[in-house]
Structures are given as structure tokens and as C-alpha cells.
Design goal:
The complex is a heterodimer of chains A (about 350) and B (about 280). With about 350 residues, chain A is mainly alpha-helical. Chain A has 15 helices and six strands. Chain A has a single domain, classed as ABC transporter involved in vitamin B12 uptake, BtuC, CATH 1.10.3470. In chain A, the strands form three sheets. A two-stranded antiparallel ribbon of chain A has the order 1-2. In chain A, strands 3-6 form a two-stranded antiparallel sheet. Chain A has a two-stranded antiparallel sheet with strand order 4-5. Chain A is globular and about 55 Å long. Chain B is built from 13 helices and two strands; from the N terminus they run αααααββαααααααα. In chain B, helix 2 packs parallel to helix 4. The radius of gyration of chain B is 19 Å and the shape is globular. Classes of the chains: A mainly alpha (about 350), B mainly alpha (about 280). At the A-B interface, helix 5, helix 6, helix 11, helix 13 and helix 15 of A face helix 4, helix 10 and helix 13 of B.
Chain lengths: ~350, ~280
């Protein structure tokens, strides 16, 4: 992973994200040819999860911090989009601090809002959890994830445990996105932008500090660079992008539910990132694809697919003994304190 | 008020039973076990199952404790032992996999419908703890058992030779091994004890809550919060934090609106960690 000169990524590194996005872009025409529109739905799900997993990898793979909060932030974004649409549908303005807002069904407004709210949530939780490291960080992010989950369950007004359905048609700056093809390419464009931005971040000075701090925190601190603000910034960016992805999922399936905020979903995101490889920006896209396809295949084969899936995870972690450890040797250092 | 306080303390001792296993395994083996909640679930299901087929609550108690202890040993020796030296991400992944397997396997064996666990008549009633204030007998028993186990654990870890081995193995494994401590066996035994405590907590929760798939996860999260607040690896910290979390959670749910009530624990955790990032009783400097 960490080439000595991160400003000069190898040709493969440059080409791979283009190939990945290109392959995904070919799915709708392929689905047309095969007469199987379900493929588009699957690929949309892959893209949405991929965006969240790529964002997670900024924190997990490059900054070396195991966060289990990603699903919570993902869900926050979903709820922002769904609640804004709900208020339009009910024609009942939301009152916030004396101001009334009628809600919105325009994704050009609600998706950025989803990212901002999730980013703010990441800022608040990150300020506390990043004061710690290693196992403390892991457990605290897990606890915060469940806090957001219980918070969503407690939202009786918005469906509580059952989740919230989006009953009004969503638009993108006046453009109807209920068409599957349109929505797919819109999501794919967002994935491409995410890959580009995260790729730039990782290669920048910011990314170098982040990776160096994962490698040896003390040395970075002694060089006069406190890692905390860098880590917090990475955490917030990652959370905001997760919120965006969550908003996208809610828009795509016209539904949001606390189930997608459960810590098991956070574990799924970690699994996606690890399956795809933590050392590259685009790896988690492959991981997300593998995850969604595996989920689909196994669940069509048996209703107890989680059993098989759990066994696969255990087997992967066991068998990639050297491989996985090598990929994430950074984590061992920051996480394995004492 | 007194009733709520007792409920809070009772939740606190349950959490302590869970958190003590987590914190010991983490503090001593440096191992994050997300599957700890699955052992709790195993305890509850075994107890309910044994009681349903035998009709005896008394028989269900040792069965549940022994089975979860055995499960703990099987997992420790068969799988987790290989992960002590590996990074926390691998540990999280492997125990996460086990959680998925455990939940689904339980659903396959027992079905999706919660099991019932009726109490024997002796424990089913309530006693008048103060004039005009009845309190369920079983909850009192849970409280007493929890406190007794906490005391026993403290004596074992701090006052006995076995406890000394455990502490030696935790502070310096190679030296302890060189001094003739069979560290592997001590760790396996420790894991079994942690599992048995989780099983005990599960079987005591059975008659109070529903015995169902996924029941281990809410308590796992609370136990993690307890572990983190108390300081990872500290039994004393786990005890203090467990009582604190039990009381705050119970009163939070009664006194605050539901949305805030379910989140108050996490706010407490955030507040404490903002001032004490290593918890209330940090073990290693």
C-alpha cells in the first residue's frame, strides 16, 4: 500500500477506479439485453453501499481507526431525506428553532442536507471518540451507533421501529429521478466523485499525515503535527459521505428504517472494506459488490444465509492470516497498544 | 422511587456479570469479544429449553452455566486463541462472524418465536420490602446473586493464587510462562469463567425479558459502555460503572421523554470520556 511517494500512484492505481466505474456503468444496458431489470436494482444497491464503504475506508484503511459508527451516520442521512419528503407529503412544516420549513422532495437540496447533518453528527461524536484510540475508539463508536439506532427507533412520529416510507415522488432540481436508469447513473456519478475526492485526499498532504499517524502516532506528533484535527477532519468527511449514501439509499428504495443503522450493518461496512482491500481507494467498491452479490446468492439459496455468511467471514479472516495482517499492518500498531 | 432504585441496581449487577467477563478477557488477553452477547443468549436459551423439557427451574441453572462455560472453552481453544496476537480489526471481524452464526443457528434450532421461561412458585411472587411496597422476589434474588458473584470474583482475582496467575499472565505473559504458569490453560479457564458469568446473566434475564434471538446485543452494547466507562481491564471500574449505568438507564427511562431516555447512557459515556479518556479506573497508565 503505502508507496514511498504517494504523489505518484502506480498506473494500476490510476486505472482501477476507472475500470470499476466503467464496469458498473455497463450494467443497465446489460440488464436491458438480458431483459432483467432486477440487475439495475442490485447494481444501485452496490453503488450506494460502495460510497459508504469507500468513505469508511478513509478512516479504517488510511487513518487506521476501526469505526463502527458508519451505519448510524448512513441512517441519519437516510432519515434526513425521508423526513424532508414526509413533511412535504403531509403538508406540515417542520419547526426548528422558531423557523418553519415546509420540507422538500428535491434531492438537490436534501442530499447535501443529509451530508451536512451526518457530518455534524460525526463531528460531535468524533470529538469525543477521537480523544481515545484503539479498542476504546472501537467500542465508543459502536456505542454511538446504537445510540443513533435507538434514537431512530424512538422517533414514533416517523414510524419508529417500522421505518418511514417516502410517499411523494422525488426530484433532482426539477428532474424526475424515479426512472431506474436515471437514478442509477446519478448514483454512479456520485460514486465517481467520491472516489475522486477520497483519492485526492489520500494523496494530499492531509492524507500523508493521516497515514503517517496511523503508522507511528508519536513520531508525527513529535514532528510538530498534532494528529487529532486531521483524524477529526477525516472522520467528519467520512461521516458526511456516509450520510449522502444513506440519503441515496432512502431515495432509491423510497424507504428508510432503523434496521440499516444497527451495529451489525456497521460490521457489514467493515466487512465490505476488508473484503475489497483496505489499501486502495477503490477496493471497497469491489468489496461492496462482493457483499451484495453474496447476500443475494446466499439468501436465494437458504433463508438462514447469515449463518453461511458468518462462516465465510470467519474463514476469510482465518485463511488470510498473512494477507489480511499485511494489508492492515498499520492497524495492528495503532490498535494493538500495549 | 425505592422500587426504581432497586431496579437500577438489579440492572447494574446484571451488567456487571456481563462486563466483568468482557473486561477481564480484554484487559488480560487483549481480545475484543463481540460474541460475548451470544454467550448470554446461549445461557438464556439453554435455561429455557432445559426447563421446558424437564419442568425444573433448578436443573436449568447449572445446565445453562455449564453449557455456556463449555461453549466459551470451545471457542477459546478452537478459534479465539489464534487471534490474541492479531490486530483488533481481525478480532472484531471474527467475533462479528460468530455473532451472525450464533443468531442464525439459534433461530434455526428454536425458531423465531420467543421462548417462555415461567418461574417456580417460590420465586414467582413478591415480598414486601417495606410496609406497603411489594417487590418481585425473583428480582431480589437476581440482585443478591449478582452482588455475591461480584464479591466472590474480587476475592478470587485479588486474594488467591489463581487470581495471581491471572494478573501475572496479564501484566507479562512471557515472564509468567517462564515462572511456570501455564498461561494457555489460565486463559482458557478465564474465558470459561467469563462465559459462565454471561450465561448466568442470560439465565437470570430469561424470566424477566423475552428469550429471543438477538437478545444478547442490547446488553452487549450496555456492557461495552460499562467496560469503557470503568476502564478496560478493571474489575472495580466495571462494578462502579455497571451500577452507575444501571441506575442512570433506569431513571432516565422513567423520568425523561423516550427518545432522550434511551440515549442518556451514551451521553453519560460521552461526558465521562471527555474528561477521562481512559475511563474512571484506568488499568495501564
Amino acid at each position: 500500500m503505502a508507496e514511498f511517494d504517494p504523489h505518484l500512484p502506480r498506473p494500476v492505481e490510476r486505472l482501477a477506479p476507472i475500470v470499476v466505474v466503467g464496469l458498473l456503468a455497463a450494467v443497465p444496458p446489460l440488464a436491458q439485453v438480458l431483459g432483467d431489470p432486477f440487475l439495475i436494482k442490485v447494481a444501485t444497491r452496490v453503488i450506494v453501499f460502495a460510497i459508504a464503504a469507500v468513505a469508511l475506508n478513509l478512516v479504517l484503511g488510511f487513518a487506521g481507526m476501526v469505526s463502527l459508527l458508519q451505519a448510524g451516520l448512513f441512517g441519519v442521512g437516510g432519515y434526513v431525506v425521508a423526513i424532508a419528503a414526509h413533511h412535504i407529503f403531509e403538508a406540515e412544516p417542520i419547526g426548528i428553532a422558531g423557523l418553519a420549513w415546509g420540507g422538500s422532495a428535491d434531492l438537490a437540496l436534501t442530499l447535501p442536507l443529509a451530508a451536512v447533518v451526518a457530518g455534524l453528527m460525526a463531528l460531535v461524536t468524533g470529538m469525543v471518540s477521537l480523544r481515545t484510540s484503539g479498542p476504546y475508539f472501537l467500542m465508543i463508536t459502536l456505542a454511538f451507533d446504537q445510540m443513533l439506532y435507538y434514537g431512530a427507533v424512538a422517533l414514533q412520529k416517523y414510524g419508529g421501529d417500522d421505518g418511514l416510507q417516502i410517499l411523494t415522488p422525488l426530484t433532482l432540481a426539477g428532474w424526475d429521478v424515479s426512472n431506474r436508469w436515471r437514478f442509477f447513473y446519478f448514483a454512479l456519478a456520485l460514486l465517481a466523485v467520491t472516489l475522486l475526492v477520497v483519492g485526492r485526499l489520500v494523496g494530499s498532504r492531509f492524507g500523508i499525515v493521516l497515514r503517517a499517524a496511523a503508522e507511528n502516532e508519536r513520531r508525527v506528533a513529535v514532528s510538530g503535527i498534532p494528529p487529532y484535527p486531521y483524524r477529526l477532519a477525516a472522520f467528519v468527511v467520512s461521516g458526511a459521505v456516509a450520510g449522502l449514501a444513506g440519503g441515496l439509499l432512502a431515495a432509491g428504495q423510497q424507504f428508510v428504517s432503523p434496521a440499516d443503522m444497527h451495529w451489525v450493518r456497521s460490521g457489514d461496512f467493515v466487512v465490505m472494506a476488508v473484503l475489497g482491500g483496505l489499501s486502495t481507494v477503490w477496493g471497497p467498491v469491489v468489496g461492496a459488490a462482493a457483499f451484495v452479490v453474496l447476500e443475494l446468492l446466499l439468501s436465494s439459496w437458504t433463508q438462514h444465509w447469515q449463518l453461511v455468511f458468518g462462516l465465510i467471514i470467519v474463514a476469510v479472516v482465518l485463511s488470510l492470516r498473512g494477507g489480511l495482517a499485511d494489508l492492515v499492518h498499520l492497524l495492528g500498531r495503532s490498535g494493538g497498544a500495549r | 422511587m425505592i422500587e426504581q432504585t432497586l431496579n437500577g441496581v438489579q440492572l447494574g449487577v446484571m451488567l456487571f456479570l456481563m462486563a466483568s467477563g468482557l473486561t477481564l478477557v480484554f484487559g488480560i488477553m487483549n481480545f475484543i469479544n463481540l460474541a460475548h452477547g451470544s454467550l448470554y443468549m446461549a445461557g438464556a436459551f439453554t435455561a429455557a429449553w432445559i426447563q421446558n423439557i424437564s419442568g425444573s427451574f433448578l436443573l436449568a441453572i447449572p445446565a445453562a452455566i455449564l453449557l455456556t462455560a463449555a461453549l466459551g472453552v470451545v471457542f477459546e481453544v478452537g478459534l479465539f486463541r489464534r487471534f490474541y496476537a492479531r490486530n483488533h480489526l481481525d478480532q472484531v471481524l471474527v467475533t462479528f462472524g460468530i455473532v451472525l452464526v450464533a443468531n442464525e443457528a439459534t433461530r434455526m434450532i428454536f425458531g423465531p418465536v420467543p421462548l417462555r421461561m415461567p418461574l417456580p412458585p417460590l420465586l414467582a411472587g413478591s415480598v414486601e420490602i417495606l410496609p406497603g411496597l411489594p417487590y418481585p422476589t425473583f428480582r431480589l434474588v437476581v440482585l443478591g446473586v449478582g452482588l455475591a458473584v461480584a464479591g466472590l470474583l474480587w476475592v478470587i482475582v485479588m486474594r488467591t493464587r489463581i487470581g495471581m496467575w491471572v494478573r501475572a499472565g496479564s501484566s507479562n505473559r512471557p515472564i509468567a510462562a517462564a515462572m511456570g504458569v501455564d498461561v494457555d490453560r489460565v486463559f482458557a479457564a478465564l474465558f470459561a469463567v467469563g462465559a459462565a458469568l454471561a450465561g448466568l446473566a442470560g439465565l437470570m434475564a430469561g424470566p424477566i425479558l423475552a428469550v429471543q434471538v438477538g437478545m444478547g446485543e442490547p446488553i452487549l452494547i450496555l456492557a461495552l459502555v460499562v467496560t469503557v466507562i470503568g476502564g478496560i481491564g478493571s474489575i472495580k471500574g466495571a462494578f462502579v460503572a455497571a451500577l452507575m449505568v444501571g441506575l442512570v438507564d433506569t431513571f432516565g427511562r422513567v423520568l425523561l421523554p423516550p427518545a432522550l431516555g434511551s440515549m442518556v447512557i451514551f451521553l453519560l459515556m460521552a461526558l465521562i470520556l471527555a474528561f477521562r479518556p481512559k475511563g474512571l479506573f484506568p488499568v495501564h497508565g
